[in-house]
Amino acid sequence: MPKTLVVVEDSQFARAILSKELKKHGFNIVFAEDAESGHIQILQMETKPDLIILDLNLPALEGEDLGIMLSGMDETEGIPIVIFSAKPEEEIKRAVELSGARDYVRKDQDMKSCIAQLVKKIKTIIG
């Protein structure tokens, strides 16, 4: 059975590339453009996602805050989070620590390489 990922990412460009590349690996993907809609979608899902990919730089509520909320709620605390962000590495590491995320990938100009790293980490975490 395919694994389901929730991707909280505000960049349309990043969502398009993530969709294409993650589907190649057989993942089902649910997208949210901001933290609030991501939070609502996750809570409303009949079957909880296998993993959440979370950008930190989101409109309104930051991704770090969403990660902290999700890790503190009974309904979502066991769902692994991987942060996928272009923020400086020290900020990402701090967000990983605060949110309880399992890992991170820092975005850079070579998006395909970043996504390859992301896929490798996803497969390590959820198989």
At the fold tier of CATH, the topology name is Rossmann fold
Low-confidence segments? none
**What would the principal axes of the Cα set say about the shape?**
globular
**What is the CATH class?**
Alpha Beta
Number of domains: 1
Number of strands: 5
CA distance, first residue to last residue? 12 Å
Helix-strand sequence: EHEHEHEHEH
- Rg (C-alpha, Å): 13 Å
Helix content: 40-55%
Global mean pLDDT: 94
Assigned CATH architecture: 3-Layer(aba) Sandwich
CATH homologous group name: Response regulator
SS element count, helices: 5
Strand content: 15-25%
Class by SSE composition: alpha/beta
- What kind of sheet is the major sheet? 5 strands, parallel
Largest sheet, spatial ordering of strands: 2-1-3-4-5
Modified residues (4-aspartylphosphate): 55
Keywords: Phosphoprotein
Protein name: Two-component system response regulator
Pfam families: Response_reg
